[in-house]
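Hi P.,

Sorry for the delay on this. The queue was packed all week, but I finally got your sequence through. Input first:
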Amino acid sequence: MQFSRLPRCSSNELINALYRLGCYRGRATRGSHQLFHRDADGRTLTGVVVLGKREVPRRTLRNVLEQLQISPEDLRDALR
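Then the structure:
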């Protein structure tokens, strides 16, 4: 995956994009993090999103995309 051109987005924008990409919320956690799941290739992938950020740091965004196996292009399309 090529992560050089990651879009900048807030936590809320990222969460809305994840829903559009077929992800769903996992169990509720206490605090500032939320689990998201995505079914792919017969298995469930899990990613953790930090809530309440005006701008998600690029490294964090890259980690979430890697955990959920989502390409930056797919995220960019879902953010539009």
